[in-house]
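# step 3/5: fold
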Amino acid sequence: MVKVSLLQGEAKTLPFRIKDKITRRWLDLNNTSCLFIVKRSPEDDNPIFIKQDADFIKVGADRGYLSLFLTTQDTWQEPWTYDAEIRITGIGSPEPISKVRFDLDILQAIY
């Protein structure tokens, strides 16, 4: 599994490029809705934070490109390796077209 590491309180843009798991081609993300969920573990019911579709930057979406800006408030969490997931659905559909999971490692800030 991929791991992204950030310092507590670090603001950063995370770039992604999403492939269709079946065709292995870059997924056309036009007419899709994205949701970013960060939880302490995959089994948790209460996310630490969520980013909605409007928070994603979809320049190059027709070629699978997305990016997401995490604010200092988003990353000012207890140092931990969190479970992060991007869910991509078609507009108006509850079923995900794709799910991308990775570890979000928040490291203790150095003062």
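# step 4/5: annotate
Residues 14-78 form one domain.
# step 5/5: archive (pending)
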